[in-house]
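User: Sequence recovery, please. Input:
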């Protein structure tokens, strides 16, 4: 064994390491504090930029809702349905399919097989681009599907038109997600944060131009959404090809080999994440059947929008967790992976509690950002306490999912999500909403 000083700026103590570089057992408070500090620094060096980048990417959808909400309640509800049902369906599926790279690239990078990273990314591009054509009918036939699911005709018609207009954004995800995972596995995350920030500012600018200068309405919002999504995808690819020389060695025919094994892992990853994301989509559809559906859907969408901002931060922590776990397992450091999980779960819970306090304090005011309708604002304030509790409950689960992705245990988590969300959660929501008459509060 040997003792190794901590990182610069850490407390003045030492930590015992094993010969293979893994942590030794933490037997004292000083050693626990040392592990906590080291893992905090390592995790946030990855999670900070990734979380910021994903929040910026999510911000393109959130800002779109904010701008459209100031056009009218019908427009807000329609765009919310399109983005929260059709858009979330595809976002969850594509992100899940791309998450297989977190396992493969993370473990390959940890094991020193850097030459395989570019091959894995190209393989994922092929699979995700093919997946886009499977999802495409949901966009093309969005209007009849939404009507079949019981949405009001006026909302379903406008949502269907918006869904068709954002088809280009779907194909951008097939490029964006694998490229992100490729860079995340190498901890090259700062560039992702910068791309996300610049494109979010760009998106706000073209939204204002298209909606309030050109007066293009929801059509302008859809065009702005498409343009911004492709700017993100192309900027990431440009960085990989021209500046990421370690993992990228050009296009390779190896990307077409062993695709079926890659597809199986991708599907497991997609099911794990989609069962969670689609649950939120299902709740929006259930709310659309309530009385005064415009206010019900709009108020829930505002709450889910804010919950989504927190969720994007935790998706960043999820990605960091999968990188840490997969890299450490690839290096043969199981104790380092375990300690990283403990530290991250504790910090995630604290963040969730802080978010809950912020929501409760501002419950009568935050809806003004999204809508000028006083009725909508009152409905949102009524849901604020439940929103705060939801933020706490959602703070730890993404971390556990990140551990599962890093370890390659996606199938097990998919079964757990299936039982919790669909066997228990949705039926309970239906009973409370319609039988107990709790309405949107479920």
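Assistant: Recovered sequence (442 residues):
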């Amino acid at each position: 064994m040997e003792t190794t000083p901590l990182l610069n700026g850490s407390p003045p103590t030492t930590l015992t390491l094993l010969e293979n570089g893994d942590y030794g057992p933490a037997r004292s408070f000083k050693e626990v504090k040392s592990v906590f500090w080291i893992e905090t620094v390592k995790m946030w060096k990855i999670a900070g930029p990734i979380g910021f980048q994903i929040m910026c990417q999510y911000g393109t959808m959130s800002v779109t809702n904010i701008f459209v909400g100031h056009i009218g309640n019908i427009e807000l509800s329609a765009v919310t349905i399109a983005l929260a049902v059709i858009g979330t369906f595809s976002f969850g599926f594509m992100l899940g399919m791309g998450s297989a790279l977190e396992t493969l690239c993370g473990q390959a990078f940890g094991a020193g097989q850097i030459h395989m990273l570019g091959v894995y990314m190209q393989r994922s591009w092929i699979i995700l681009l093919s997946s886009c054509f499977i999802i495409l009918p949901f966009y093309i036939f969005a209007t009849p599907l939404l009507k079949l699911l019981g949405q009001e005709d006026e909302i379903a018609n406008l949502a269907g038109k918006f869904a068709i207009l954002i088809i280009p954004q779907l194909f951008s995800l097939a490029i964006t997600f694998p490229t992100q995972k490729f860079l995340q596995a190498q901890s090259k995350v700062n560039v992702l944060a910068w791309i996300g920030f610049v494109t979010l500012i760009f998106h706000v600018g073209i939204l204002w131009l298209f909606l309030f200068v050109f007066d293009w309405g929801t059509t302008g919002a859809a065009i702005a959404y498409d343009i911004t999504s492709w700017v993100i995808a192309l900027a990431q690819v440009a960085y990989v090809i021209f500046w990421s020389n370690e993992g990228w060695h050009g296009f390779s025919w190896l990307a077409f080999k062993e695709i079926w094994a890659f597809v199986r892992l991708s599907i497991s990853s997609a099911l794990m994440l989609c069962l969670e994301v689609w649950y939120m989509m299902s709740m929006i559809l259930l709310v659309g059947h309530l009385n005064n559906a415009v206010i019900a859907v709009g108020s829930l969408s505002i709450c889910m929008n804010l919950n989504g901002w927190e969720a994007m931060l935790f998706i960043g922590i999820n990605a960091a967790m999968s990188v840490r776990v997969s890299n450490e397992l690839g290096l043969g450091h199981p104790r380092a992976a375990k300690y990283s999980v403990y530290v991250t779960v504790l910090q995630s819970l604290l963040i969730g509690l802080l978010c809950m306090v912020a929501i409760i304090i501002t419950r009568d005011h935050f809806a003004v950002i999204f809508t000028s309708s006083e009725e909508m604002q009152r409905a949102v304030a009524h849901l604020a306490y439940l929103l705060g509790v939801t933020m706490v409950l959602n703070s730890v689960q993404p971390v556990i999912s990140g551990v599962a992705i890093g370890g390659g245990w996606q199938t097990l988590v998919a079964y757990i999500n299936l039982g919790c969300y669909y066997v228990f959660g949705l039926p309970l929501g239906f009973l409370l909403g319609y039988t107990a008459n709790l309405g949107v509060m479920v």
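The chain has one domain: 2-17+26-441.
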